[in-house]
Amino acid sequence: MASSRNLSRFWEWGRKIICVGRNYAEHPKELKNEVPTEPVLFLKSPSAYVREGAPILLPYYTNNLHHEVELGVVIGKGGTNIPQSNAMDHVEGYALCLDMTARDIQDQCKKKGLPWTLAKAFNTSCPVSDFIPKETIQDPHNVKIWLKVNDNLRQEGHTSSMIFSIPFLISYISRIITLEEGDLILTGTPKGVAAVQENDEMVAGIDDIISMKFQVKKQTQ
Ligand SMILES: CC(=O)CC(=O)C(=O)O
Ligand SMILES: [Mg+2]
Fold first, then answer.
1. Cα of 59 vs its chain's centroid, Å
2. Which of 138, 147, 163, 192 is most buried by a 10 A CB count?
3. What are the residues whose beta carbon lies below 5 Å from ligand 2 (ion)?
């Protein structure tokens, strides 16, 4: 029994969104980044959450907004220094997520040694599906995540290709940042990231377990 409160609308809790980068070797390779030997972590703000029915907004300062489809892990029981051996007891469920990324801004930040906040943490940068109860996904390291843009398949990856497993990530993160009920961990994206334009329609899914649809719109000032 992980949670005392109902996490089926975890995005309304306003908790942390902790993202893992470069967790599928093929993705850092396609961006000519090094494959990590330790998890790469960054955060999104709770205002990054957006749900089906509302648009993903193109930030006014980017010309290259990329999609990254990812498996999200919803934390049900918080903790610090969580051992890998019981890390899965802290999981309440999952969600399909997009880590929307202003790639041109991220490239500039990397060159200047600046943080990725503008590239990764802007409003609507974290579209999420409905909550998926833990029992629905027997093995989170054995599902396919996919994303289509205007009906063209762009990303298709298998969670068995993650470099760092979910128990390892929970344990690693909790030694640095205390995990709380309602936190969301994005576990990294497989290859195939690419740009979206205004009015593009993205449909993403986890096998045939869940799918979600979002449209991209220009931000009106
Ligand atoms: C280079 C990145 O943007 C890393 C990232 O977010 C990922 O999922 O990998
Ligand atoms: Mg990502």
1. 18
2. 147
3. 68, 99, 189
Predicted confidence (pLDDT) per residue in 52-99, tens digit: 999 999 999 999 999 999 999 999 999 999 999 999 999 999 999 999
Block residue for tokens 């997520």: 97
CA 139 to chain centre: 18
Question: Computed from CA positions of residues 102, 104, 106, 112, in that sequence, does the dihedral angle turn out positive or negative?
Answer: negative
For each of the domains in the chain, give its residue range(s) and CATH number, in order of start.
Answer: 16-68+92-218 (3.90.850.10)
Which protein residue has the closest C-alpha to ligand 1 atom 2?
21
- Alpha-carbon distance of 92 to 132, in angstroms, equals 9
pLDDT beneath 50, residues of the chain: 1-3
**How far is the centre of ligand 1, averaged over its atoms, from the C-alpha of 87 (Å)?**
23
- pTM higher than 0.80 for the full model? yes
Using CA positions, which residue lies closest to atom 6 of ligand 1? 21
Ligand 1 probe mutation, 19, 20, 22, 31, most atoms within 8 A of CB: 22
State the complex-level ipTM: 0.98
